Amino acid sequence: MNILVQATTRNKKTGNIPTIIVGQNYDEITSSCRASGCILLHKKLGGSGGYKELGLLPCYAHKGHVSWGTKSILRAIDKGTKTIADYSIEEGFSNSSRHAKYFRLSSIGDASSLSQETIDALVSEGIKYGLSPLGYTASKEATHLQSICLLSCPTIEETDEAISKGWRATSIFDVKDWDGERTFTTPQGHKGIYCPEQVQQMKEKDVTPRKKITCNTCGLCAKGNKHRTKYKAIGFFAHG
Prior knowledge:
Helix content: 25-40%
Number of helices: 8
Number of strands: 9
């Protein structure tokens, strides 16, 4: 499985950090998602449709801005205005913002389909530029990614199970059930925190760009289970 690396992004949630696309065409991207067993992959893309049983929406990455941006890159490569080499690991990291602290693995596609050689190359190049890995995988089998990614779980029960197996993990919450607190405790007693960027969006008005929380300023979803935070679980409010 190949990758593309975007050096910069205008994503207001993540901040301007280099971002990995798993796959060099849309078939490869969706193939990695299917292989991961992601329950949020839309049924029309080969997913199980399990998100419906949980009352969840399918993955936001395959619709809207993320997929539009990805397809724009792929079209530019097809037309010859850009090349695969323009999105190499070396080009992506060397041309990243000097303010970037992390690289995102990934905006679309699942990292569990990447070879160990590619993972090692990303981590090694990241160290060179002071960039730590930040991201998620939906594959419970990808234990080799535990020190890099969080396991993406649709329910708090699965989050607890993942933590018991060595992961830091995420869970999806319905904002209608939110008690207004910034933290939570899982059924098995693990400390969790709701995504600070999402909480800020809901609790604070007129946030200035300087005070805006991004993944780049937060970093709680970085470094997998090697992170020194006390929070084993990260809660995300379901994307609309």
